[in-house]
Model the fold of this input.
Amino acid sequence: MAVEELVSSVSKQDAGYHSVIWDAFNHPSGVYFAKLVTPNFTTSQKILLLK
Done:
């Protein structure tokens, strides 16, 4: 299992809405998970990639 960091955990983001584009060209179809971690909150989301 490989892990990709979509946004650096070192950089801080201002409050508000943000988006990230994940280039899944080299990944096979399947279920992937995205995890958001902040000092006060953690959540994860399932992503279904179909090619």
In short: The two ends are 20 Å apart (CA to CA). DSSP finds no helices and two strands in the chain. The mean pLDDT is 89. Residues 15 and 38 are 11 Å apart (CA to CA).
